[in-house]
Amino acid sequence: MKHHLLLALLLLGTVSALHLANDAPPLESPKTETSLVQDPDGSGGQKGQSALTEEVIQEEDDKVKASEYQEDFEDKEAVGSGLNALEQDLLCPRQEDTVQIQGDSGCKTCRYLLVRTPKTFNKAQNVCRKCYQGNLVSIHSYNFNSRVHCLASKINQAQIWIGGILKGWWLWKRFCWTDGSLWNFGYWASGQPGNGGGHCVALCTRGGHWRRTPCKRHLPFVCSS
C-alpha cells in the first residue's frame, strides 16, 4: 500500500515538473560583440578611422591652399574685367581734390594730376580713363619719379597708386603699365618686388620707392592724360 502511494506521488511530481517546463519562456542566448558588429576580419573600424583621418587632412590642406591663393584671387578680381569697364555712377574728383604735377621732360604736352581721394587700384584707373581720358601714371625715369614723390610726400598717406601692375601666372609673371608703355624703369624698395605681396604697384611717399601692394587697398593716385 505504501509502495503504491509513493509511486503515485512520484508520478504526480514528474507531471508537474513537465508542465512547468513547457510553460516557461525560452531563454535567449546573449548577443556577443561579434554578432552585433558584422565585421568578420575586425578591420572595419580601422578603415573607418583611416578614411576619417584622410578626410580631415584633405580639408586642412584645402584651407591652407585657399589662404595662400586668396590674395591672388582678390587682386585678379580687382584688376580683371573691371579695368576695361567704366563705372556708370562714377563721380569725377572735385578740382580742389586734385593737384597738377609738372610734366615729364619726355612728354611736355602730357598732363599729370594727383588725386587725393583714396580708391582701389581698379577704381582709380577708371577715374583716370573716364574723367581725364588717360591712365594711371607710368614712370620711366628717376627725375620724373622724384617729381611725383616730392608732391606725394605732402599728403597724409603712406603710399599712392601708380600704373604698374603684375600680370601673368607663375614663371610668366611680368610688370606692365596700364597705359601700355614699355616697362623700362623701376625704383623698388629693398626686398621688392620679389618679397612683396599684391599685384599692383604703389609709390611710397617717404623715400619714393615702389612696393607691391594688394589692389583692393584704398590709396590716392596719379593720373596721366
Automatic annotation (TrEMBL):
GO terms for biological process: basophil activation; histamine biosynthetic process; immune response; leukotriene biosynthetic process; negative regulation of translation; neutrophil activation; positive regulation of interleukin-8 production; superoxide anion generation. CDD domains: CLECT_EMBP_like. PROSITE patterns: C_TYPE_LECTIN_1 (PS00615), C_TYPE_LECTIN_2 (PS50041). InterPro entries: C-type_lectin-like, C-type_lectin-like/link_sf, C-type_lectin/snaclec_domain, C-type_lectin_CS, CTDL_fold, EMBP_CTLD, Eosinophil_major_basic. Residues 1-17 form the signal peptide. Gene3D superfamilies: Mannose-Binding Protein A, subunit A. This is Proteoglycan 3, pro eosinophil major basic protein 2.
